[in-house]
Structure formats: C-alpha cells, structure tokens
Amino acid sequence: MSVKALGITFLTDVDLGNHNAGEGGSQLADLKKYGNRPYISGQAYRRAIKEALRDQVDDPDTADCSSRYACGEIADCLICDLFGYMNTDEFDAGDDDTPPVKRTAPLRVSKLLGQYDRPKTTDMILQQDESEEADNRIGYREITQNVYHGGVMLDVEAVGRREQTDVDSDRAHDEIFQREFESEITSAERDARVETLVASVRSATNLAGQARHMADFMPDLVVGAVLPEYNQRLQNALNLDTESEELVVAQLESVLADIDAVDGEVWIGGTHNPDVIGNWEAVFERAADAGATVCDGVAECFDSVAEAATET
Ligand SMILES: [Zn+2]
After folding, report:
1. What phi and psi, each to the nearest 5 degrees, are found at residue 305?
2. Per-residue pLDDT tens digits of the chain, which is 312 residues long
3. Cα–ligand 1 centroid distance for 146 (angstroms)
4. Is residue 95 part of a domain?
5. Whole-angstrom Cα distance, residue 4 to residue 271?
6. Is 109 a member of any domain?
7. Of 71, 160, 231, 281, which has the maximum CB count within 10 A?
8. Does 140 map to a domain?
9. Ligand 1 centre from 75 Cα, in Å?
10. What's the CA-to-centroid distance between 239 and ligand 1, angstroms?
11. Element (H, E) at 263
C-alpha cells in the first residue's frame, strides 16, 4: 500500500486535574466544559505533542520554532513541517529564498473531550509567584476526573512537501484538482519524521498544569490505522454509550468496514482499565472479526502504525 494517511484515536482515563489550567496567571481556573463535561483544547493537546517531539529529536535546532516565531524552513524544521505555521509579518514575497508565509499542518489534532458525567470539585492552591512581590496568593482550580476521547490524523504525503498552489487560469472550474507536491526532504527523512511524530503522540503527557502535577495521559484504548487515501473516518471508531459506559461495538465495526473498503489497515491495543469501558472483551473480539489486528498493548499498537506507515 502506498500510505497517504495515518490516524490514531483513543480513550484515556485521566486522574483528577484541570489540564487546561496553568496558562496565564489567573487565580480562578474553571474547567473548560462542553455541556457538563470537561474538555482539553486542541491547542493544549497540540502543544503537548510538540513538547514531546522536542524530547524525541536528537538535534534541538530541528524543533525549535514556536507559533510566535516560525522559520518556515520545512526541510530543516520538524515543527514548521508537521504543525504548520502562519507568519503575520510581511515577507518579501517575490524572493525565492523566502519560505511562503503560511503552511497548512499535515498533522490534525482533536480536542480531548470528557465522556462521562463525573463530579467536579474545587482545589484551593497557594500560588507561589516567582516575581519580586511574591505574596503567596490563593488560587482556585476546578478539577475533575474523566475518560477523554481524542485523536490525531497525519497527511503522510504532505510531510516534508509543499503543495503547489499555482492556479492554471486556463482550466475550467469543474476540472479535477490534482495535488502537486514538491518534496524538500528524502523519503528516509520523511519516514524518520513520521516515526518521531507517532512516538510523540504516544508520549504526549505535558499538558498545561502538568509542571508540578502528575497525570497519566497515555491512551488506555487505542485504534490506529494507515490508509491509502486521506479521510478521517477512523475518528468515529470509539463512541461510548454514556449510560452503560460501554463502547458502541456496532459503530466500531462499521468504521472498520469503511476502512477495509478503502484497503486501509487497522490495529487495536489496550491496557485493561474497567473505568474506561465495561466491555473490553467484546471490543477486542469483534474488532478482530472485523479485520483489525489486536496488539499486545498500547505501545505495540503505536509501533505497528508507525512501521506500516514507513515501510516501502
Ligand atoms: Zn521552524
């Protein structure tokens, strides 16, 4: 298979905390909520993957950019390549040596959305200010425990490549649009970047508020896939029935059938945790029947996806 896309979707039980808090110096940190359930913003999750990626690379200069400063040199910079960028400064547009002002990220990251109705509480904390007038202020942080659902998709083909956006004005609008890419890296380097990224998703734990607190973000149940075309169908695979606290197996089977129909490959792995879902055995049995490869745990699932996405 010529792999065009890679996807990972997961459920993870996360300890009591407020995983968006810690941004800014606010004394009141309410949970971000959708309805009655907490969520962790896509921005916070993306930042956590970036942090994990910085720990993965051998040369820190290849992962040095921030969203405030982006070099735009995708040949040398994993951050600009994988996460995209938008430079608001005016560049010298006609200059061939200047990278384009923006890049669409090959990596798409979801929010992490809490799945169950669980109690919330407020934690009173002493904020130790590093500044000179370090009066220890009291802060309040709303915290909760929940099972979060999230995922990522990678447009594998776009890694290290720039899409040519030149429009041929002679063409009629209804003509099929062809994606044309110009590669700035070797295929070995592309494979290395895909592997680094998958490892970063696996180990992304450094969400906001985690500097002093400990919380295990490693997925408890993960489904990964490689696809010969880009689609995000995989992200619908793990839907929970919030009443029974079981995974909706029929929906998982339908999604696996859709992926099978485009000749995609799927792996599923889990670290048994009854707080996540109540029907582990049924999920693995029926996923296997629907063509997924059942892995011995979560790490093997990530490794299998990375391996399949990089084998030629
Ligand atoms: Zn950069």
Report:
1. -65, -45
2. 899 999 999 999 887 777 765 555 556 677 788 888 888 889 889 988 999 999 999 998 999 998 778 999 999 999 999 999 988 765 555 566 778 888 999 999 999 999 998 877 787 777 655 555 555 677 777 778 889 999 999 999 999 999 876 555 565 555 555 667 889 999 999 999 999 999 999 988 766 555 555 566 789 999 999 999 999 999 999 999 999 999 999 999 999 999 999 999 999 999 988 889 999 999 999 999 999 999 999 999 999 999 999 987
3. 35
4. no
5. 28
6. yes
7. 160
8. yes
9. 9
10. 36
11. none
User: 8 CA to middle of ligand 1, Å?
Assistant: 25
Total number of domains constituting the chain: 1
Residue 30: exposed, middle, or buried by beta-carbon count in 10 A (0-12, 13-18, 19+)? middle
* Alpha carbon of 106 to ligand 1 centroid (Å): 14
Please give the residue range of the domain that contains residue 126.
5-57+104-166+179-310
Kindly report whether the global pTM for this prediction surpasses the value 0.70. Answer: yes
Instruction: Compute, in angstroms, the gap from residue 60 CA to the centroid of ligand 1.
Output: 11
Structural domain contains residue 84: no
* Burial tier of 5 (Cβ tally within 10 Å: 0-12, 13-18, 19+): buried
